[in-house]
Amino acid sequence: MKIDVHGHAIYAYTGGKAFNPAQPTAILIHGVLCDHSVWALQSRYLANHGWNVLAIDLPGHCRSAGDAPASVEAAADFIGQLMDAAGIEKAALVGHSWGSLIAMEAAARLGARVSHLVLVGTAYPMKVSPALLDSALSTPEQAIRMVNVFSRATLAPPSGAGSWVFGAGMALGRRVLASNDRTNLLHAGFKACDSYAGGEAAMAALQCPVLFALGEQDQMTPPKAAKGLIEAARGAQRQVSIVHLPSGHNQMTEAPDQTLFAIRDFLAR
């Protein structure tokens, strides 16, 4: 479906189900150089089990118009604007990688309007090496390959019917990069992650329970890199759940069932 947000058409995949105001809503937020499709299994399941699902393309990405967010804070403001435009009073926010920072910052800003917060493959600070930032700007094809090498723990997921996740990741990255001829989405997304400094403050402001879904073999955002956020959430007396997934940084495709069940069980609480 398309949602008009301040004059820009924003695409949200709904899992094939019409929006039902009587049901709770989950907003799924992708990471750098990705789109709604990374949530394929999880969004379809939730949509068929009592949830409204909005698996979005962030502004300036693929099917969504508008300017690509230049910072985590700008993207977090957009989530609130999206909820207002769609007439959603309260939602669960689920984010992966850069999307996890966006979801966290949005949850802090939206307060009681967020029922649950799910952080998949998160880290704070989410620093990006200068070499990768430079490559993203000057040799993006090489940077996409580098990211896919380090973010993958397997070439074929157990339940992927023989799919080649590395090749799929390369194709997705190229497609997303080509979708915007005004902004280098790879460099802009990485710079937003690298520059974000609001993690502890966001955790202190949360008013909802939070789930950390971390890949055991994740080299991009290793589980230990989430320790500061976990401690900040506990220090703020938030309800914290932690699930370790048998995957690298692409939890939704490398451990699709385990990722889904972790999200499903958390949202059911």
Task: Explain what you see.
The protein has about 270 residues and is an alpha/beta fold. It has one domain (about 1-125, about 190-265): Alpha/Beta hydrolase fold, catalytic domain (Rossmann fold, 3-Layer(aba) Sandwich), CATH 3.40.50.1820. The chain has helices at about 40-45, 70-85, 100-110, 130-140, 140-150, 165-180, 185-195, 200-205, 225-235, 250-255, 255-265, and strands at about 1-5, 10-15, 25-30, 50-55, 90-95, 115-120, 210-215, 240-245. Helix 1 links the parallel strand 3 (about 25-30) and strand 4 (about 50-55). It is globular and about 45 Å long. It starts with a strand and ends with a helix.
What is the secondary structure topology, with strand pairs?
Blueprint: E1 2-5, E2 8-13, E3 25-29, H1 40-47, E4 52-56, H2 72-86, E5 91-96, H3 98-110, E6 114-120, H4 130-138, H5 140-151, H6 165-178, H7 185-195, H8 199-205, E7 210-215, H9 227-235, E8 240-245, H10 251-254, H11 256-267
Parallel strand pairs: 3-4, 3-5, 5-6, 6-7, 7-8
Antiparallel strand pairs: 1-2, 2-4
- CATH-wise, what's the superfamily? Alpha/Beta hydrolase fold, catalytic domain
- What's the assembly state of these chains? single chain
Give the strand content: 15-25%
> How many E-type strands?
8
User: Any guess at the CATH architecture?
Assistant: 3-Layer(aba) Sandwich
| Count of distinct structural domains | 1
Shape: globular
Radius of gyration: 17 Å
- Main β-sheet description: 8 strands, mixed
What is the mean predicted local confidence, pLDDT?
95
